[in-house]
Amino acid sequence: MIVPFQFLLKDALRFRKMIVWILLSICAFALAMAWHQLNFGSTAKITPTDRYINVVNLLVFRLLPLASAIYSTMILSQEVEQKTIVYLLTRPIERWKLLIGRWGATVAAVIIISLLGMVTTILGSGGFSAVKISFLHDIFAIILGAAAYGSLFLFVSLIFNRALIICVLFAFGWESSVPNLATGLQKLSILAHMQAIAQHPDSEGGKKFLEGISGVLGTNTLNPTSSVFALIVFSVIMVGLSAYWFTTHEYIPREDSE
Amino acid sequence: MIEITNASRWYGQIIGVNDVTCTIGPGITALLGMNGAGKSTLLRLITGQLQPTTGDVKVFGQQPFANPEVFKHIGYCPEIDNFYEYMSGREFVKYMARLSGMSASEAKTKTNEMITMVGMSDRADRKIKGYSKGMRQRIKLAQAMVHNPDIILLDEPLNGLDPVGRHEFLGVLGHLASIGKTILVSSHILYEVEQMTHSILLLHRGRLLATGDLGVIRDLIDKYPHKVRIETTEPRKVAARLTEMANVVSAKIDEKNLEIELEVRDPNVFYASLSALVLEQNMPILSFSSPDNNLESVFQYLVEG
């Protein structure tokens, strides 16, 4: 399991693959820096903590599922498309080990990308000492969110040919709309669980703006402990299902299967 | 080592392999068939990438599908020309070695051995994206052998190799066979196969048409008249002389008066006689060829008689 993990993580963290995320992290830094100037019609004083919370919710938590969708396709879909799957499936390694190792690598890559965005946001908001918030909660939310999105998208990529489209639709369609439907449906959103785990206080300056573009930052009624449990159980079930599916189904290069 | 019993594989409505039964043991065996005959499907069944729709495929007594125990004994060199292009050849082979369960130091040692064996020592640290077809073939072979498998399956391995590369490659195969490895090589080129082995499996439209020694199959083919085309400056004189030979069935001169097309029985005897005729009687023969000496003709003989 370690070898597939190491090799895929090394591939995922190549500069060419990271450049977009580095640029987005710089955007997060710039946005956090400029947040108090944008003001959004609020008369309240905007603290560094407000800036951090708003930018993390707007960019970091929002882009995590996108990064997860893109990186999840590296686990298998990309290998099938590039036909290199042949090399992996004829090696003396159990398929489930191969899959879980590679899943772990993509989750690690998404966590690293998200933490990079989180750190630049903190720096843009005034530094670690200025932002009065428990960063551990955010780190924990990112880790569990990356695992949950990664496991869901992994399963989708094992079943569907054009998985990336489905994953992106989920990330931006489902995750934006479902938490705002009837009460209780928040439980069906990974993003809502992440926000429950992060336990961000209500922030001023930009709340209206954020509500306007996403609406997802409305009142979150989920219990943080339940959310932790839910994301862990969900991840374990999805990875288990994926491992079973991958072990019992054929995966051969795309054009050869047609 | 490899036992295939009534194995069939369907891709929806299309049949890839149809009721194939055979056993493959040590030495070099060639899997011969035209494009689309089912060679790659058969190799995928043996390498556990596919499951047979019906029948049974066993390697060392075990079913190979998703079975790492079987993969310890199998080295597979696929036909595809796809790699992790950003890696160097050495990194790629080492990655495959590591995936086979070797420690980092063991993988490094075995990788270097294999890279040397396939003659890539001086180019193994360049990125694969800059490799020629021949270099890619060598790296594929190295990754197939890096974990010292007992069975090596090679899907069209000579594609893209230059004559020197082919010669070296055949030398490597001969060496591996001599140390007791089971080697199954697929090809659609009869001449290529004859250089490697006489033990063949002949596939046609998914069916196993013939197995055994290539010589036996050749003898079977030789029951029927073969076409031989002779280019000469004096077709009438040459044709008259050739038709006197016992194994020449018919002779026809083409419209341009440049070539004679003969039908002969027992072509090996005919070729020996033809050589003697040219040397001893100074017959003006510029060239000769056998339009039948290709796979399509072999299949025609075997299927249609």
Give the class-level CATH name of the largest domain in chain B: Alpha Beta
Kindly report the greatest chain-chain contact and the residue count on each side: A-B, 27 and 29 residues
Radius of gyration of chain B (CA) equals 23 Å
Distance between the termini of chain A: 31 Å
Subunit arrangement of the protein: heterodimer
Number of helices of chain B: 11
Layout of helices and strands:
The complex is a heterodimer of chains A (258) and B (305).
Chain A: H1 2-12, H2 15-38, H3 48-75, H4 77-82, H5 85-89, H6 95-125, H7 135-159, H8 163-177, H9 190-198, H10 207-213, H11 224-248
Helix pairs in contact in A: 1-6, 2-3, 2-6, 3-6, 3-7, 3-8, 6-7, 6-11, 7-8, 7-9, 7-11, 9-11
Chain B: E1 2-11, E2 14-24, E3 27-32, H1 39-46, E4 54-59, H2 68-71, E5 74-77, H3 89-99, H4 104-117, H5 133-145, E6 151-155, H6 163-178, E7 182-187, H7 190-196, E8 199-204, E9 207-213, H8 214-222, E10 226-232, H9 235-242, E11 248-253, E12 259-264, H10 267-281, E13 285-289, H11 295-304
Parallel strand pairs in B: 3-7, 3-8, 5-6, 6-7
Antiparallel strand pairs in B: 1-2, 1-4, 8-9, 10-12, 10-13, 11-12
Helix pairs in contact in B: 3-4, 3-5, 4-5
